[in-house]
């Protein structure tokens, strides 16, 4: 009999801590749009719902595809995956995926109707990206391109598209700096996940970037992503910006030390710290926008 309650099982499937990534991207876009006098509370709410539903759909689709591929073995040390443990039925998981996709499509189509119909192509790319991450003839996460996918779909696409929907210029150079910063910070979440699952992924043929380049590569790439994320914020720097940046630097170094010193299940704490830091970075960007001289 399972020692987990039903709410715990569903939280294990939905993985709420990962929602910080998609939510942070949209918050940055909304904050930058408001700083440029582009605002709409209705569009902002729809963008937030879209980001959350897209992340949930991605999480469920990833678990479903990995389950069918047999990528989750008894050696897994990551957070609970109730489907692979047989604690939630396949039908329940498919129903949850359908609900999340309905919410995603409803919010997406509403935003398209309020903005431009060519954004339908962006929406289709997002849905395809959800399934291409772990599925299809060339699954990105199985071929060392997972972190690149995160940069695109949790950095560039949500930040730039959200800003455009709110009435901003998608070619704004500062916007792309912010989008890349959030994307790199989010990529570190996946990097920690792949670092933790190195042995299991090697056995199941999942050629993540850590499997391709070795475990020693992960902490170095983690640090590089973090430094680049901070450096890309230079368009927002002002006299007081360094005070806010110290908060992120301390949080980031704490997570990096945890990555270097932890193994197995202990890396789940590193994963949580890294997800937290994405949200911290988003809040700091909002603070930098507020402090930036007009």
Gap from first CA to last CA: 61 Å
Radius of gyration: 19 Å
Mean pLDDT: 86
Number of domains: 1
**What structural class is derived from the secondary structure elements?**
mainly alpha
Describe the global form: globular
- Level of helix content? over 70%
The count of strands amounts to 0
Could you give a short account of the major beta sheet? none
User: Which spans of ≥5 residues are poorly predicted at pLDDT below 50?
Assistant: none
List the SSEs and their pairings:
Blueprint: H1 6-14, H2 19-35, H3 41-69, H4 90-114, H5 120-132, H6 146-165, H7 173-196, H8 198-204, H9 209-213, H10 217-231, H11 241-261, H12 267-291
Describe this structure in words.
- This protein has 294 residues and is an all-alpha fold.
- It has one domain (6-291).
- The protein contains twelve helices and no strands.
- α2 (19-35) packs antiparallel against α7 (173-196) and α7 runs antiparallel to α12 (267-291).
- The chain is globular, with a radius of gyration of 19 Å.
- 42% of the residues are buried.
- The model has no long low-confidence stretch (mean pLDDT 86).
Question: What's a quick, concise take on this entry?
Answer:
This protein is an all-alpha fold and 294 residues long. Helix content is 71%, strand content 0%. It has one domain.
Keywords:
294 residues, mainly alpha, 0% strand
